[in-house]
Amino acid sequence: MRISKSLAVGVAIVVGVSHAQTFQRLGTCPTLGCVFPPDQTDFLAGQYFDIRLEVHAPINGSEANGKQPDEKFTFTIAKEKGKAEPATTYFSIAEPKLERWNFSWYEDLFAKEAGKPSIVNVTSKAYRRVALYEPGEYTATLTYNNGSTTKASWLVRDLQEVRKAKNIIMFIGDGMTTNMITAARLIAHKAINGRYQTKMQMDQFPILGHQMTHSIDSFITDSANSATALYTGHKSTVNCLGVYADSSKDPFDDPKVETIAEMFHRLTGGLVGIVSTAFIADATPAALTAHTRDRGQYGAVVDSFLHGITNYTWTNWTGPDVLFGGGAEQFYDPKLGGKTYLNKDYYSEFSKAGYQVLWNKTSLAKASNDSRALGIFTVSNMAKWLDRNVYKSNLNQSLSPSGDKTAALDQPGLKDMTLKAIDILAKRSGDKGFFLMSEAASIDKMMHVLDYDRALGELLELDDTIKATIAKLKSLNKFKETLIIVTADHGHGFDVMGSVDTKYLAAQNVDRKKRDAVGTYQNSGLSQYANTGNLTYSEGVHFPSNWDPRYTLFQGLMADPDRRENWSVHKDGPRVPAVNITPSADFYANPKDGAGGILLNGTLPVGDDQGVHSLTDVPVFAMGPCQELFGGVYNSIDIFFSMAECFGLARGKGHGQ
Amino acid sequence: MRISKSLAVGVAIVVGVSHAQTFQRLGTCPTLGCVFPPDQTDFLAGQYFDIRLEVHAPINGSEANGKQPDEKFTFTIAKEKGKAEPATTYFSIAEPKLERWNFSWYEDLFAKEAGKPSIVNVTSKAYRRVALYEPGEYTATLTYNNGSTTKASWLVRDLQEVRKAKNIIMFIGDGMTTNMITAARLIAHKAINGRYQTKMQMDQFPILGHQMTHSIDSFITDSANSATALYTGHKSTVNCLGVYADSSKDPFDDPKVETIAEMFHRLTGGLVGIVSTAFIADATPAALTAHTRDRGQYGAVVDSFLHGITNYTWTNWTGPDVLFGGGAEQFYDPKLGGKTYLNKDYYSEFSKAGYQVLWNKTSLAKASNDSRALGIFTVSNMAKWLDRNVYKSNLNQSLSPSGDKTAALDQPGLKDMTLKAIDILAKRSGDKGFFLMSEAASIDKMMHVLDYDRALGELLELDDTIKATIAKLKSLNKFKETLIIVTADHGHGFDVMGSVDTKYLAAQNVDRKKRDAVGTYQNSGLSQYANTGNLTYSEGVHFPSNWDPRYTLFQGLMADPDRRENWSVHKDGPRVPAVNITPSADFYANPKDGAGGILLNGTLPVGDDQGVHSLTDVPVFAMGPCQELFGGVYNSIDIFFSMAECFGLARGKGHGQ
């Protein structure tokens, strides 16, 4: 966390915006003149970025001032105490053309209810693909409306350019919190008299940190926004991938920032691998190469994996060496029902670019380590560990990655994908090294649907994957040159408060009586998931020996839709806690879910059918070169800067280069 | 976390106990022969402890075997592969007399509902005040019932005896989790574009760790149990202070373990300070000197502060040099309504022992640093920061520490007490150093009653106290010789999921419509507690500038009684979420609480009127000598061993000494 020396800038900006909360005109722009990147932005020396300027003229609402949006605004850059130069001079680029648009927003819920939006006219310019090289503080100044100014204090961090790690493997447990790690440990590792007999791999990391996930314009983040912070060092807005959110309607014209994957590849020629258990166009994998205001542009995201950004001059991107995950519907031919970018067959596109195309665990295992590989193993998100390993009949759905509507029965897990990715990257990268992001995506997805068992299963699979990764790196003699980071992108408000006697719960007929099944404090007893039977105490693979004990965890989220809670494993596949059973958009407890449980009214808006993200700082575990950079408490963006420092990616070539 | 080499011991013990969960015959004794300290116990070399042996003969229930409890059981100790010797020989002590008793328990909730307890006859012996000196593994073996054995694997940790810190200050935020720290930061520290402009003191600590709070016989702990783990290195049972729980009815005969305060004082002559915002006989302060199965023995706890344990030979304890907190009713004369040990006036008792007796902030400030001091500032728990500083009229209650039923208006805060404690300890300790425990008790107490604002206020006061402590130590030139640890004893399942438009909430008449007031993700917006007005960005004292903004935090616990939630500050004092409004013991939402909010049904048993503790690992922040011992993830007991190592308290004098 940096404390800016130019504090007055921030104070001036913040005053007067306290009225806008649930909705904001434009989150990072409380005044009528907007600069992106905004105040308090840090850059890696030499990192590409776009600049977007906007001048707002509210036509109605509390900010209306009767003015037209200024067409003659000016913009300057000054380093430290130096002279302020026009951006065109400073960056040696042509003056961009003036753009115009308008947008509307609601000032609060009453305005929304009354159907009274506020309309804003906008003038704007965008300076594309610039960079700052010399470390130090800069002031960017937008002057508009006859002398009003918006100043942004920018800092180019002064980082060493020496490379300390050859490879970085970044594990992201999507939505994973310390609370969930604690619960996963409880169900998979045996304790005797308060002592765990085996350790989670994460618990054995030498360095622990916490990262703050607060996004740029709201304190709760989504996975797009938070992935952008982790990969670029730039906080952003919900739904943004690798851009700051401007107010225009075009989802592809927002000001971009270069990602760790793009910089690493551009500057060192190092290889990039992307692995996720989500559909591969989902936010966490997408944010490594995509640049859009709208994370829902899945087809374009898949295209950007392969071709990078093509609508503006950007960086030289030639595709990751490994791309493994789900989401076949964004790849296969639209004739089969695919929903692809420009109606192309992306299996064919990747194949033409030299990729092996893999559709199942068997072909993954057999794939060559010499060629680039695309592995797409299912339609939608990949099957969960619990369904692949315990409740296997749930795999019988029409989700084949080929698009032929058969079942995707032979899906790999995160461990299979990650180990193969390392094999390929290690073989192909030679002296150049690699960056691999491996995401346990369904911790988040299963927490969203209140399916705690499946979420914890995914977390345990992540831990097992990390353990196997360390062994793999050692077997390849690459352990000492590889930094391993394990973190999350945000939390869910989850904890465990005791145990539930599910037999007693089911035997009661009245909700208030069912609550007696809950055991807290001394009545929580011991975990029945791992403490039954003659489990051995090996340091091997650890998952619960019994997912369906009589005494389950009294666990949950804190922000929920209406639901019926029986605190038992959902054997018939991922949970659906709430359903729309009225003509309205209202969700009620799913009558097919939580049999015998307690009917609980939710706290979230009734249009929500699942849980939401939470505020909490999330843990960071680090091991390897530069591990010392990841201890203590810091901002999410610091993870980008620490990874970039470890790779030696700063390029202080001097002004204008 | 230690992985025992003698694994078979643990496996043998655990099999067959999976039926007992909500209730257990005796948590640490799944077989019919019980050894305390039980299997998997670690000791500091030279630490005093008692041994309790029990043989159980269940008369009825699933374990009944028709036997009488064995009177001729034997007990041996063996070091490593050495010869097993009778305990009397090993410790050179006389054979204790045989004791007998019986107790009853319920096998599960159905048995409880049917009123069918299981009765157990017991024979027992206790060996008092022994110690193990030589580092290494020991096996303690109870042989009973003609050859059945219960083996306990004990380890005396091999720690250096070199003292590295002169002083240790241990801050305990009772019930404090990472999630709460994140929320407190949000309401008290201003953020601009996702960057906090100031830092919490905790966030600036160089070392971060997580401790697992799992207790010895249940996975959820209470504060007595967890404080025992932190202060003695021995996990225990809910409600236990400095003892393992045996099955006898006497709350004072359970096997004791020596605490860090007792060892530090006995071995080095160093001084001890105890500060808490709770009533001072509450679990967290009490566990430093009290030894009882029942944390509710408040009078005896107060006596033990002064006299130590007197019913058995124990350690030479002459009282702390500083004892500051609430709970006057356990001190003043029973004629005034006091509830004291043996009906004595404990102000008089402490005064006779040379203590200054202080009743308010004014006298605290004026107190001499040359004499020991007892400061008792109110009946019950001390006033909360929010009431002392913002809603002051709530102090008008009959809580004077004198017992005269006037109001306790002039109460100090945690900072006042802690700084004065340091002044006294620093002045009086000379070369001997001091150990100070300072507890922000009402983080927990306010989370229990779902009063999130007050809980976060207490957390911020703790942070402010830590900051002031560092400055104080520097001013006394004692900073470099002092280890500062900040941690918690357990969690509460709390998080923040967004914001609430309280104006919109109040304007709706239907619960399902009220839920639209909740803003998640991008609609969470920015904190309105700290981001309003011209707050300066100093590194000074940080509390919210506005506790009652229109847009509040959408925050809460995950295990609740029935309640009405309006997510607004409780201006008329600490919250009472549920009340008993029927002739039964059932609690319902308090009709006077949460006006205009959403009525929410709870999940806890309806006899509960407040929230409960949670499972989550809690954070540990360390700064100073030995700070490196506190990074990463470890067991709660490791905090005791690391503090003892830092003080050099291990005493490997050799066998039998």
Describe this structure in words.
The structure is a homodimer of 657-residue chains. Chain A is of the alpha/beta class. The first copy, chain A, has three domains: 150 residues; 355 residues, 3-Layer(aba) Sandwich (Alkaline Phosphatase, subunit A); 107 residues, no CATH class. A ten-stranded mixed β-sheet of chain A has the order 16-17-15-14-18-10-19-29-13-30, sandwiched between helices. The N terminus of chain A is likely disordered. Chains A and B meet through helix 1, helix 4, strand 11, strand 12 and strand 13 of A and helix 1, helix 4, strand 11, strand 12 and strand 13 of B. Chains A, B: This is alkaline phosphatase. Chains A, B: Its EC number is 3.1.3.1. Chains A, B: Belongs to the alkaline phosphatase family. Chains A, B: It comes from Clohesyomyces aquaticus.
Quick structural summary:
Two copies of one chain form a homodimer. The longest helix of chain A is centred in the last third of the chain and has 24 residues, at 452-475. In chain A, helix 4 (178-188) crosses helix 14, helix 12 (414-429) packs parallel to helix 14 and helix 13 runs antiparallel to helix 14 (452-475).
